[in-house]
Amino acid sequence: MDRLSKREMSLHLKPISSIPILPLILLFLIASFSSASGDDSLTAYEVLEQYDFPIGLLPKGVLGYELDNSTGEFSVYLNGSCTFSLDSYELKYKSTITGVISKDKLTSLSGIKVKVLFLWLKIKSVIRDDDELEFSVGIASADFSVDNFSECPTCGCGFDCDTVKGRKIGSNHLISSA
Length: 178
Hints:
- The chain is an alpha+beta fold.
- 21% of the residues lie in helices and 38% in strands.
- Strands 1, 2, 3, 4, 5, 6, 7, 8, 9 and 10 form a ten-stranded antiparallel beta sheet that branches.
- The termini are far apart.
């Protein structure tokens, strides 16, 4: 009987010694995701500043974000879609905004549109050049002073929530084809 117990023990030890690799892979993926997501101590607005962008590129009320520091790929989460007016433009943010961030460049943007005349155009990139921000919709772009984005707009009313009109922003109104 003692011999049977040892045999049973050795049978039980074999599956333990050949632990499936799946839990180890899952543990690695969880650790990788944690390091790839945004630094919990920084807000999405602070991350923008780290890449030399003003906080006013995002509306108030960001719920959270994810950032892969190795690729710059990001997702920003809002409480819902967000629309407001600035100058003669109407902006619309989806509840999730994605793209790639690097110093002075936001590219491959998805989730932000601007209404020009009667057309809704996707903002595809924002490039900072000194004190100017170039917003590109692919076929055309417009430059605005960085100072216009020192504060975050509020969904529904933009920068002028007291009068619900929208704040005029300075632009050199250079619209160039890309």
